[in-house]
Amino acid sequence: xxxxxxxxxxxxxxxxxxxxxxxxxxxxxxxxxxxxxxxxxxxxxxxxxxxxxxxxxxxxxxxxxxxxxxxxxxxxxxxxxxxxxxxxxxxxxxxxxxxxxxxxxxxxxxxxxxx
Amino acid sequence: xxxxxxxxxxxxxxxxxxxxxxxxxxxxxxxxxxxxxxxxxxxxxxxxxxxxxxxxxxxxxxxxxxxxxxxxxxxxxxxxxxxxxxxxxxxxxxxxxxxxxxxxxxxxxxxxxx
Lengths: 115, 114
Fold this sequence. Notes:
The complex is a heterodimer of chains A (115) and B (114). Chain A is mostly beta strands. Helix content of chain A is 0%, strand content 51%. Chain A contains no helices and 12 strands. In chain A, the strands form 3 sheets. In chain A, strands 2, 5, 6, 10, 11 and 12 form a 6-stranded mixed beta sheet that branches. Chain A starts with a strand and ends with a strand. In chain A, 36% of the residues are buried. Helix content of chain B is 0%, strand content 50%. In chain B, 39% of the residues are buried.
């Protein structure tokens, strides 16, 4: 069965620090990969996605993620975080060519950025 | 404005009292889905619908029902809520053209069952 692991449950950073959130997935086939962000009290928003092509994808608000197929990983990065990046971040996968649109989510990483 | 709406946003109820959470989208999307979000577990799919009158179970369907009589609406029904259904619920919708289509999420419904 597909699964997604996010290694860090809580991360606390100071403003301007660099961010890397880990994501590994378990699935033998081809997948689409996503990072979603949930700001306090708000709904999920798509940060970035990888379907194919360049494994380094850039998303909104200066975030990027790198797909490393050999490691089944899709880590999220940002060179310099801001207080407004405080949120919960979810990695998700979807089986490419699957019969449904189902997303499998990781358990989330809560990021707190201190001013 | 393209959006997914849910009502109510917050609900406190008691065990056994039937309730319905509505979900509506204005994007003419074929695919709709319900997820529940619990601390430490992320989001898990409850039910989904590929189109009108086509619904199927997700990963955690027990205790829930859905219906899809119209394309825009996908209500979630709890016939006899129990405390373990206390959670944050999200509805999502997307086009369905084969392959993956980006899902748009509603604002969430926070349900407490006493």
